[in-house]
Automatic annotation (TrEMBL):
Protein name as annotated: Homoserine dehydrogenase
Organism: Nocardia macrotermitis
EC number: 1.1.1.3
Database matches in PROSITE patterns: ACT (PS51671), HOMOSER_DHGENASE (PS01042)
Broad EC category: oxidoreductase
Cofactor(s) the protein requires to work: a metal cation
Pathway(s) per entry: Amino-acid biosynthesis; L-threonine biosynthesis; L-threonine from L-aspartate: step 3/5; Amino-acid biosynthesis; L-methionine biosynthesis via de novo pathway; L-homoserine from L-aspartate: step 3/3
CDD domains per the UniProt record, alphabetical: ACT_HSDH-Hom (cd04881)
Family, per entry: Belongs to the homoserine dehydrogenase family.
Residues that bind NADP(+): 19-26
């Protein structure tokens, strides 16, 4: 039994080092100090803050300056540190610091989704080798408990799908666009002013943050190692106010979704016959969802995750997905669990990646689509457009056509067919029109071929947007 594996006495403190003192780190330190007596009762031994690693130790941070250090490596290596809380973010030096802590048998609690999305395997192996714990509840959805349910509560079930809103910045922007009718750039500027968006919002608005979280969720749900590179990703920067208007007309709204699901093996692949392996599809993109879908009412900076399991059915987790105090709440839940394990000699569940399911290419993934295009407003345009969809095997569900200044002039496939055969005298003459096509389920590759063909039609001025449609009964 090593020094780090001993059972702690009730008066023997469990030493905690905190790496980083931004919004989350500040709240973690506050909770450790303000709730010391409660935490002692819950753990069985006192939690003792040994030090906090910061970039500058000469800044007043509202705590004893003697606790501050700029040497994070030395803090982690201290003999009186038993548990390391990493809330500094980024890949380096967080990766090296966490690795050093785990190798030394010190348990780690982290909120670092970018690191975990690519290096969970490496860190989990280090934890297993030294019999330390690695906890990361706060890495996916802030205060929302979804990691522990996937690892523990649903470990006896089979998870088939996880879909969620896991980025507060993009959800704030899309919610505001939906409510006010403002365009993307104006809403992003407002989000930045209010502090919901970073000065450089790329990681949020282009889906990188959500993709890292999707990789973590998929790994846990399907017992398969998934990295950020495996996640198909699109952001919201191309979403227009017109997309939101059309979505509203269809009884929908637009959300940036992280989707992880089992899909059947492809034709000719191992597993396509009965008894073989599924594949998994992991993707992040903006999508229309019906107003009746539970995720449609998740607005502002809030997050939510829906888990669908074979026996448990549909479970929904909702709450604040970011912010100092909410994220610190999840961090501290992990701190208590890790500290209890130190006190009682227990262990957290290790990484479970036995399934090794293959990743389905996005081109093979079927979904429904909302295609918005500008077209010439004349007889025969709908017929030509519908012909391209049919040629590429994409079935049309509904068609909606709007003149430039006079509102909707066609709606639904029946009306479209009537207009195609009505003749010139029944066609209002305008300079152009907007055509919105909603498809039945089709693969990404078939839709991409269709859009490329539409762009070549003389009657199509431009395909202005393609947005997926999720959450329908079809």
């Amino acid at each position: 039994m090593t020094d780090q594996e001993h059972h702690f006495g009730t008066d023997h403190p469990i030493g905690v080092a905190v790496l980083g003192m931004g919004n989350v780190g500040t709240e973690v330190v506050r909770i450790i100090q303000e709730q010391a007596q409660d935490l002692r009762q819950r753990v069985g031994a006192p939690l003792m803050l040994r030090g906090v690693a910061v970039r500058r130790a000469d800044v007043d941070r509202g705590i004893d300056p003697a606790l501050l250090t700029t040497d994070a490596h030395a803090l982690v290596a201290r003999d009186d540190v038993d548990l390391v809380v990493e809330v500094m973010g980024g890949i380096d030096p967080a990766r090296a610091l966490i690795g050093a802590a785990l190798t030394a048998g010190k348990s780690v609690v982290t909120a670092n989704k970018a690191l975990l999305a690519d290096y969970t395997g490496e860190l989990a192996a280090a934890a297993e080798h030294s019999r330390a714990d690695l906890y990361f509840e706060a890495a996916v959805a802030g205060a929302i408990p979804v990691v522990r349910p996937l690892i523990q509560s649903l470990s006896g079930d089979r998870v088939n799908r996880v879909v969620g809103i896991v980025n507060g910045t993009t959800n704030f922007i899309l919610s505001a666009m939906d409510e006010t009718g403002a365009d993307y750039h104006a809403t992003l500027a407002e989000a930045t002013r209010l502090g919901y968006a970073e000065a450089d919002p790329t990681a949020d608005v282009e889906g990188f943050d959500a993709a890292a979280k999707a990789a973590i969720l998929a790994s846990l749900a399907f017992h398969t190692r998934v990295t950020a590179a495996d996640v198909y990703r699109e952001g919201i920067s191309r979403i227009t106010s017109e997309d939101l208007e059309t979505a509203a007309a269809l009884g929908c709204t637009v959300k940036l979704l992280a989707i992880c699901e089992r899909v059947p093996a492809g034709p000719g692949e191992p597993g396509s016959a009965q008894g073989g392996k599924d594949r998994i599809s992991v993707r992040v993109y903006p999508a229309l969802i019906p107003r009746k879908h539970p995720l449609s009412s998740v607005n502002g900076a809030f997050n939510a995750v829906v888990v669908e399991a074979e026996n448990a059915g549909r479970l929904m987790f909702y709450g604040q997905g970011a912010g100092g105090a909410p994220t610190a709440s999840a961090v501290m839940g992990d701190v208590v669990m890790a500290a209890r394990n130190k006190f009682f000699g227990g262990r957290a569940p290790g990484e479970s990646v036995y399934a090794e399911l293959p990743i389905a290419p996005i081109g093979d993934t079927p979904t429904r689509y909302h295609v918005n295009m500008k077209v010439a407003d004349r007889t025969g345009v709908l017929q030509a457009v519908a012909g391209e969809f049919a040629k590429h095997g994409v079935s049309i569900s509904t068609v909606r056509q709007e003149g430039q200044d006079t509102g909707v002039i066609e709606s639904g496939p029946e009306a479209a067919a009537e207009r195609n055969h009505a003749g010139p005298s029944s066609t209002p003459r305008r300079q152009g029109a907007r055509l919105v096509v909603v498809t039945h389920h089709a693969t990404e590759s078939a839709l991409a071929d269709t859009v490329a063909a539409l762009a070549e039609l003389e009657s199509v001025t431009s395909v202005t947007s393609v947005v997926r449609l999720e959450g329908t009964e079809e």
